[in-house]
Amino acid sequence: MESTYVTLLSLIVFLPTAGALALAFFPREKTDAMKTFSLVVTAVVFLLTVIMALPGQGGGWQFDAAVSEMQKVFSLDWIPSFNIRYFMGLDGISFPLLLLTTFITMLSMGASWPIQKHVKAYCILFLLLETGMLGVFLALDFFLFYVFWEVMLLPMYFLIGVWGGPRREYAAIKFFLYTLLGSVFMLIAILMLYFASDLKLLSDKQLVVANVVSSYVDQAAQAEQIAALRAQPQPIHTFNILALQQLGQHTDAFDTIILGKSLQWWAFLLLLLGFVIKVPSVPLHTWLPDAHVEAPTPISMILAGVLLKMGGYGIIRICYPICPHAGYDLAYFVCLLGVVSMVYGGFAALAQKDFKRLVAYSSVSHMGYVVLGIGVWSAVAGNQFNADAWKMGMNGAMFQMIAHGISSSGMFFMVGVIYDRVHHRNLDQFGGLFAKMPVYSGLAIGIFFAGLGLPGLCGFIGEVFVTLSVWNYSHALAVISASVVIITAAYILWTLQRVYLGPEYRGPHGDHLHPMTIRELAIVAPLLVFAIVFGVYPQAVFHYMTPSVDRTVDDLAAWTRMEATSSPSTADDAQEREASIAQQ
Amino acid sequence: MHRIDPFTDLVNSLVSDTLASTAGFQGELTLCATIVLILLLRISNLTSRIDSFYVMLLGSATALYLAGPWHPVEHPTELFTGLLIYDSFTVYFRTLLFLFAVLFAIFTRISGIPDRDAAPDAYALVLGATLGMCIMASANHLLMIFLGVEMASVPSYALAGLTKGRRKSSEAALKYAVYGAGAAGIMLYGLSLLAGVLGSLHLPTMAVRLADLLQPTNLEQGIGADTHMVLALAGLMVLVGVAFKLSAVPFHFWCPDVFEGASAEINAFLSVASKAAALALLARVAIGFGYIPEPPVPQEHVALFNVAEGDVAATADQGAAGPAAPAHDRAAQIEALAPARDFLWRVLAFTAVITCTFGNLAAYGQTNIKRLLAYSTIAQAGYMIMPVPAAMVLADSDPQAARAAMGAMAFYAGVYLFMNLGAFAVVAFLRNVMHSEEIADYAGLVRRAPIVAVCFSVILVSLIGLPPLAGFAGKLLIFSYLVQAKLWTVLVIAGLNTAISLYYYLRVVKIMTFDPEPENRLPVNLSFIPGTYVVLISLPLFILGIWWNNLNELATAAARHLF
User: Fold this and answer.
1) Closest by alpha carbon to B478, among B498, B461, B458?
2) d(Cα A339, Cα A333) in Å, to the nearest integer?
3) Which residue, A245, B25, B484, B527, has fewest beta-carbon neighbours within 10 Å?
4) Could you say which of B479, B502, B553 has the minimum Cβ distance to residue A180?
5) B503–A177: do the CB atoms touch at under 8 Å?
6) What is the pLDDT along chain B (563 residues), one digit of tens a residue?
7) ipTM of the complex
8) Are A531 and A407 a contacting pair, CB within 8 Å?
9) What single string gives the DSSP state of each residue in B232-249?
10) How far does Cα B362 stand from its chain's mean position?
11) Out of A78, A151, A188, whose CB is closest to B491?
C-alpha cells in the first residue's frame, strides 16, 4: 500500500529530473529531439496525474475525491537526527494544483518550440523546475517543502536570465532576491516552529491523523509506536506539517512569548511574508512585472500559471492551520493585503503601455482575490461560529487559483503569439488584428474574457464566491472588492479594443501577421476549453477540492469556538492566554 | 624494599606519561616523520629521483589513517601532562586537517604549483603548519595555544610568498607576517595576563580558578573586583589572536591582500585548514573559560621503572592537577562562570555579525576572483563563529543543545572544506589555462568548459546556502541553534546576509553563463584530469546536501565531550 504511493508520487516528482539527466547525454545539435523528449516527459507526468483524477475508489492510483483527509500518504526516514522525513501526500487542496501544474507545464513546453538558444540547457532547467513545483505541492514535511521551494529558484533564475528579454538580468536577479529574502524568513519561522514543537503533546488519535504513526499498520503496532514515542525523555521536535497543524490547533506549543508577541504570531508573519512575496501582494509585488515581462513566453506561462499559486497554497496549507491564533488576530490585515492588491493591480494595469506588463498587473489584481478569500475569518462568536461564508471564500480562493492558472497562462501565451510575429508589445501600435488573424483574435478574446470574469467562463466563479463571502466579514471590503470587477472590465475591454478592434494594423512588421500555427492552436485550445468547462460546470473542480477545503475551515472554526469558550475574553492578547495556562 | 627518590619518580612518571600519550599523537608524529623525510631527501638531493609529492601524499594519508574517526574515543584524555587534550573533537578536526592535506597534495600535483623544485620546501612548510593546526585543535594549555598559533602561522607567511619573483606575492607575505606578528604579540600579552591573574596555564585549572573568582559570594563582597577588568581585557586580547587566524573583522585586513598575492593553492590551504584549526581553537578557548567539562580520565601509565602501583597513582593524582571536583561542585562552578559566558557570547556574537555583514558587503565591488573569495571566506567565518555564542548561551541550561551547536560548527567546517577547496581548485586550473584571475575573463565560460563552469556554479550556490547543496544543511544547522539559543538579532542578520551574499556569488555565475565571451582571452582547454578533480570535489556537496545525516551525527558526536 504505502510502497505503491512511494513509487507513484516519487515517479511524478522525479520523472522530470530523470528526464533532465537523460537530456545531458543528447548530442548538442539535435534540438528538436530534445524538445520532443522534454514534451514527452511532461506529457507522461501529466498523464500520471490524469489517471489519478479519473473516477475510482481510492485504493490504487485513483484519487478519492470523497475523502477530505490526506491520501496517498507515505513517510520514510530521511535525516533521523533532525526527525526529517521523506513525507508526501495529497488532498483536495493540493491535488487540483498538482493537476494544474502538470497541465500548464506540458503546454508551456509545447510553447517552447521557438526557443533556439542553448536548447539543451533550456530543457534541462525546465524539467528541473517542474520537479521543484510538483514537490512543493506534494511535500508534507516542512523541510522537504522548503527544499523544493528553493530548488525552483535557480532554474527560474537561469530561464529568465538567459532566455529572457532585454532587461532579463535585472529581472532575474530581482526575482531571485525577492524570493530568497522571503524564504529566508520562512526558514526562520520553520525553525522556530520546529524547536517549539513536541510530538508528545499530541493525543494518540492526533498522532495517527498526522501520520506520525503509520496509519497502514494495525492497532497493536500503532500502540507500540506510540508507546515508543512517549517513552522518550526529551521533547520530540518535528517538521511534519500535519503534526504542526495539530499542535497549532490543539495545544499551547506555539504560544510562548517572544519579544512581546506569541511565537506563532511571529511565525505566521514570517511565513506570510515568504508567501505573499510569491503571490505577490502589494507592496511586495514589484518583482513580478519585471520577471513576467522579461521572461520568455513559456516561462511567463509557468510563472503566472503555477508559481504564484504556491504562495496561496502555502497560506492555506501552512500559515492558517499551523498558527490559527495569529491568523485570527491578523485576519483583517490579510484581507486588506488582498483588497489593496486587487485595487492597485487593477489601476496599474489600466496605466500600462506594454501588453505583457498589463497582463502581469492583472495577475497581481487577480491573485488579490485569492488572499482575500483565504483571509475572511467570518466564523466568530457573533454568528455562532458559522463557517459557511468562510468556506465559500476559501473555496472561491482555491477555484480562483485554478481559474487564474488557466486564464493568465492563456493570456501570456496569446501575448507571446503576437510578439513572435511583430516583435513588439506596445499597446498603442496594435489595432485591427481581428481582420488579419481572425482565429487568433477570437480565441484571444475568449481567454481575455475568462480573465475578466465574464459569467460562463472560469474567472467568474472564483471572483463571485470570494466577493460574496466577504460581505459577511466586512461590508467595506466587500464593496471595494466588488467594484474591482469594474476596473478589471475596464482594462481588459480597453485592451481588446486597442489590440484586436480598429480598422487596420499600422504597427511594425505588419506583413508578418500570418495565421496561428497548428502547434499554437493545440496549446491555446485546451486552455479555452477548460476556461469554458470550468465556467459552466465548476463542480468539476469543486468536486475534488471542497471536502478538504471545508475540513480545513471546519477545523479552524472549531478552534475559534474552543478558544472563545475556554477563555472569557476574546483572548486577543497572548499574554493573557499565557497567564491562564499557567494558572491551570 | 627499594626506595624511590623524587627524581626517579618524576622521570618515571614523565616517561610513562609520554609513552602513554603517543598513542593519541600518532597522526602528528607521522607528520613530523614526513617532514624530516622530505627534508632529508632534499639535503641528499634525492628529490630529483623521488618526487616529494609521493612522500607528502603517503605521509598525510598515513596520518589520516592513524588519526581518523574510526578510532573511537571513549573518554577524553589529557596528553603530555595536560598540555593537549585528546577527545572526539580533536579527532574530528584532525581528520579534517589530514583529509585536507591529502586532497591538497593531489590538487597541487595537478595544478603544478609548487613545481618540482619548490615542492619539497612547500610541502615541508604545509605539513609543518598542519602540525601547528593539530596542536591548535587539541590545545589544553596556554603554552600550547600560543605554540600552535605560531607553528601554524610562521610557515603560512612563507607559503604566501611561495611564488618567488612576483612582487604581489612578496608583498602579501610581508603584510601577512607583520600583521601576524602584531596579533601574536597582543595574544601573548593577553595570555600572560590570564596566567598571572589565574595562576595557572592549564585551561581546566584556570576555569576552576576563574569560577572561584566569580563566585556570587565573592562578587557581592567585591572580592577580586579589581581583576575583572584585567580578565576582560586579557580575554579580548586572546580573542584578537584567534580573530586574526579566523580573519574576523576588524582583524581581517590581511586577508584580501594575502589572498590576491598568494597563489590559489595557498589560498585554499589558508582558507580551509587554517580556518578549521582557528575555529577549533576558538571553541577550546571559549569553552575553556566559560565552562567546566567533565574531568578527563587520567592516563593509564606505563611504568618504565619498577614502581609500586600505588605510588604511580598517587603521583598521577598530584601531577595531573585536573579539577577532580565532585559533581555538585562542578555544577556550582559552571553556574559561577555565567558572567564569563555572558562576556564571551556577547563579544563573539557581535564579532560574528560584523564579520559576516562586512565580508558580504565588501565582496560586492570585487573584480578579482581571489579577492572576492577572500571576502567570501571572511563572511563565511562570520557564519562559522555563530554557533559558539549559541553554545555559550545554551551551556548552562541545555548542555545537549550546546554540544549540538558545536557540532553544527564542526559540520559547517567539514562542508566548507569541499566548498573552498573546490572554488580555489577551479581558480587555479583556470589560471593555468587562461593566465587570468579576473572575473570578467570568466565570461561565457560555460560554453568553453561546461563541466568546470557548472561545478563552480554548484560550489558558489552551495556557498550561498541553497538546497539541495551541503552549504544549506550547514546553514540550517547553524540557524537552528541560534533559534534554540534565542539569539534573534543574530539570526535575522544572518538570514539577511544570506540574501545579501546571493548577489555577488550569483554575479560570478551570471558572468560565466549569461555573458558573451571576451575576444582576447586565451583558449580555455581544460584537460581531463583537472575537470575530474573538480567534479570529485563538488560531488560531495550534492551528496552531503541530500544525505547529511551521517556527517551531522559524526559532527555532533565530535562535540560530545565538550559540554
Assistant:
1) B498
2) 10
3) B527
4) B502
5) yes
6) 556 678 888 888 888 888 888 888 889 999 999 999 999 988 887 777 788 889 999 999 999 999 888 877 888 888 888 899 999 999 999 999 999 999 999 999 999 888 888 888 999 999 999 999 999 999 999 999 999 999 999 999 999 988 877 888 898 999 999 999 999 999 999 999 999 999 889 998 899 899 888 888 877 777 777 888 899 999 999 999 999 999 998 899 899 999 999 999 999 999 999 999 999 999 999 998 888 887 776 655 554 444 444 444 444 444 444 444 556 688 888 888 888 999 999 999 999 999 999 999 999 889 999 999 999 999 999 999 999 999 999 998 888 999 999 999 999 999 999 999 999 999 999 999 988 899 999 998 888 888 999 999 999 999 999 988 999 999 999 999 999 999 999 999 999 999 999 999 999 999 999 888 888 777 777 888 999 999 999 999 999 999 999 999 999 999 888 88
7) 0.91
8) yes
9) HHHHHHHHHHHHHHHT-T
10) 23
11) A188
Q: What is the residue whose three cell numbers read 513536541?
A: A198
List the single residue in A162, A195, A259 with the smallest CB-CB distance to B483: A195
CA distance A217 to A220: 8
Check the CA dihedral A324-A328-A329-A331 and report its sign. Answer: positive
What is the per-residue pLDDT across A415-433, written as a single tens digit (0 to 9) for each? 999 999 989 898 888 888 8
Whether residue A233 is preceded by a cis peptide bond, meaning omega within 30 degrees of 0, is no
Name beta bridge partners: A459.
none
Distance of alpha carbon B390 from alpha carbon B341, whole angstroms: 10
Q: What is the residue whose three cell numbers read 476559501?
A: A394
DSSP assignment string, A280-306: T-TTS-THHHHHHHHS-HHHHHHIIII
Q: How far is A259 from chain B, CA to nearest CA, in Å?
A: 10
B-chain residues near A195 (CB < 8 A): 480, 483-484
Helix axes B203-213, B167-198, angle to 10 degrees: 50
Reference B94, options B20, B42, B142, B148; nearest CA is B148
Alpha-carbon distance of A376 to A399, in angstroms, equals 15
A265 contacts A331 by C-beta, under 8 angstroms: no
pLDDT at A59: 58
- Which set of grid coordinates corresponds to residue B513? 553563463
Alpha helices in A197-296 (DSSP H): 204-209, 219-230, 241-250, 263-278, 287-294
- State the amino acid at position B513 in one-letter form: T
Which residues, at least 6 apart from A443, have a Cβ–Cβ distance to it below 8 Å?
A: A414, A516, A521, A524, A525, A528
Entry pTM: 0.93
Residue A149 near residue A136, CB atoms below 8 Å = yes
Phi, psi of B78 (to 5 degrees): -95, 135
Q: Cβ(A75)–Cβ(A87) under 8 Å? A: yes
Find chain A residues with C-beta within 8 A of B467's C-beta. Answer: 146-147, 150-151
Q: What residues contact A240, with CB distance under 8 A and at least 6 apart?
A: A75, A85, A87, A140, A141, A142, A199, A210, A211, A212
> CA A239, A242, A246: angle at the middle one, nearest 5?
105
- Contacting residues of B for A259, CB less than 8 Å apart: 488
- Angle at the Cα of B322 from the Cα atoms of B317 and B326, rounded to 5 degrees: 90
Report which of A151, A134, A158 is spatially closest to residue A42, judged by C-alpha positions. Answer: A134
Residue with cell string 469543486: A542
Q: How far apart are CA B254 and CA B261, in angstroms?
A: 11
Query: B493, B501, B502: best mutation site toward chain A, by most A Cβ within 10 Å?
Result: B502
* Secondary structure (3-state) at A62: coil
In order of B105, B521, B560, the CA distances from B69 in angstroms are: 21, 46, 14
* Beta strand pairing call for A84-90 and A261-262: unpaired
